[in-house]
Amino acid sequence: MVREQIEARGITDPRVLSAMRQVERHRFVPERLRHSAYSDSPLPIDYGQSISQPYIVALMTSLLELTGTEKVLDVGTGSGYQAAILSLLAREVVSVERIPELAEQARLRLQELGCDNVTVHVADGSLGYSQEAPYDAILVAAGALDVPQPLIEQLASGGRLVVPVGDAGMQVLYRIRKNADGSTSRESHGPVVFVPLVGRHGWPE
User: Fold this and answer.
1) N or C: lower Cβ tally within 10 Å for the chain?
2) Whether 46 contacts 102, CB under 8 Å
3) What pLDDT digit, counting tens, does each position of 96-111 carry?
4) What is the predicted pLDDT for the residue at 154?
5) Among positive and negative, which fits the CA dihedral 193, 199, 202, 203?
6) Would you say 50 and 44 are in contact if contact means Cβ atoms under 8 Å apart?
7) Pairing of strands 50-51, 43-44
8) What is the rounded CA–CA span in Å between residue 52 and residue 68?
9) Do residues 41 and 53 touch, judged by C-beta distance below 8 A?
10) Burial class (CB in 10 A: 0-12, 13-18, 19+), 4
11) Bridging pattern class, strands 171-178 and 184-192
């Protein structure tokens, strides 16, 4: 999977590639779909959500430019796969999920895998998680109508926010950097498709 789907498509960060090799994706997909766990595609999980395509997970993770010292906010825990990857690359991961059942499943799964630097909270991801802010990096695994202002506010100076922005059918993946004066700059990293970011600063339920 890593060699053919990720390295072959230009992801070169050795730490990201190592994390993708270490975290077994089949542990995060429903039993009925485990035969497809390493395919180059997103897969459905419970409650109408999905686990992202491996390449997209690697791309978004690499855009965060993690060195191992950061506190990261992971918006949209889902199955916990992205949080598990981040746990190997950051000092601390705060993950938020709006669906309580998914949050509990992910929390137990991450505990079983020894991801001791991850905490999972039930919360509106479009609001971030101010109790633990600021964050050196924020990753949003759901499509936003626009960049949620609370996430900008919770991003530390010099921090990076990776978020898909667009309509329900297609989004553009952006990396947003917060400058020392509080202003931001953004760069586009191509089209993506995610489930909607539901919440006060996202899509209505």
Assistant:
1) C
2) yes
3) 999 999 999 999 999 9
4) 98
5) positive
6) yes
7) antiparallel
8) 23
9) yes
10) exposed
11) antiparallel
